[in-house]
Amino acid sequence: MKYRGRIAPTPTGYLHLGHARTFWFAQERARQNNGTLLYRNEDLDPARCKPEFRASTLEDLRWLGLEWEGEPVSQSERMPEYRAAFETLRASGQLFPCACSRKDIREATTAPHSEDGEPIYPGTCRKNPSTINPQKSTDYNWRFRVPEGEPIEFTDAHFGPQKFIAGKDFGDFPVWQKNGLPAYQLAVVVDDAAMEITEVVRGADLLTSTARQLLLFRALGLTPPAFYHCELMHDENGKRLAKRNDALSLRELRAKGNTPEDLRARWE
Ligand code: GLU
Fold first, then answer.
1. Which is deepest, 20, 35, 41, 134, by most CB within 10 Å?
2. What is the architecture of the domain spanning 1-76+233-268?
3. What pLDDT, in 10s, does the model give residues 45-67?
């Protein structure tokens, strides 16, 4: 099978060095494997995603030296596909409606958070479905019922064997939000399958999400890709790079006179 990779930026701010490095690795993996690299614009959240950041991200990545095949695919144009997957999961009884807010969950849970910082869902609405009025679909999210205690295992091409226990390392997670939008986990699974991605290259902060997504691939009867997670970059104070750290945005670094080679030298 021919290698097909993808880069999938979320246009909520200027691209920073950490993401740029992950995307560069994605290109390297595609090149090493004689494969193709595709571009997906993860613009599902209309409140946070802005056209100017879509444009700046495309421009910054081209400046850095990234090349991808074809036109970018935008998630905001693929709602019917996500809705169909949601309906399939719901019809098969693998989802349940949940009226808990993030605050409710934070307050109800005494259990530790999963490694990616998500509080483990305490099962409030899973155990008490009678509190839900199914007529009022705008009042709740839909969560995926994880198989309690099942080990989810995969071999990461960079970090090696991985193992997460469903219900312990992560809880029942949202796949559809009450605002009518799919959750990140569902959208990427539907897209990676539709785009026939053979390997996903992403940051190590998404390792637990990969385990969640493997459950969705299985539940939807789809073949999962392989995975390569990259180390995260930290600033000089040891803090993880984030979009709000403008000093390390590609824009800023470029304005200060850095060339693409200067930036690539920081991770090569
Ligand atoms: N859109 C995500 C990000 O910018 C990446 C999602 C993924 O690789 O699945 O961090």
1. 20
2. 3-Layer(aba) Sandwich (3.40)
3. 999 999 999 999 999 999 999 99
